[in-house]
Specification:
Rossmann fold; 5 strands; 128 residues; five-stranded parallel beta sheet; 20% strand
């Protein structure tokens, strides 16, 4: 599986890349949203791990642009701002999974699995 990681914190990008590569994924990390979007214009990816709050472009804006390029892209959003409003915005935008910072490698791996799960295979998401 090909995964793109986008976070303005280099340490987070490095940790995500290391953990996901160790799980056998092909992973490319970026600290700038524009570079990650350029990569998505050139090649496909199965999933993107994106920070909610970045300086140049919010995670939600990034996701909307990424879906414009790759409509089938799955999304795991990571955030230290896990307020009810942030969660609601991400859910309404169609983000599959959110993992709160700080997170462990295990929590990241679980989030990836959840983001890739076919909604028909999992528990009901609710009526809205």
């Amino acid at each position: 599986m090909t995964i793109i990681v986008v976070d303005d914190e280099p340490a987070i990008v490095r940790m995500c890349v290391q953990v996901l590569q160790a799980k056998g994924h092909t992973v490319v990390g970026y600290t700038r949203a524009d570079e990650a979007l350029a990569k998505l214009r050139e090649t496909t990816a199965d999933l993107v791990v994106v920070d909610y709050k970045m300086p140049e472009l919010s995670g939600l804006d990034f996701v909307r642009r990424a879906w414009g390029l790759r409509p089938d892209l799955r999304v795991l959003m990571i955030t230290a701002h896990g307020t009810r409003e942030v969660m609601k915005q991400a859910n309404e935008a169609g983000v599959q999974t959110i993992v709160l910072k700080p997170f462990t490698p295990s929590e990241l791996a679980d989030g990836i699995a959840a983001a890739l799960q076919d909604p028909a295979d999992g528990p009901a998401a609710g009526d809205g």
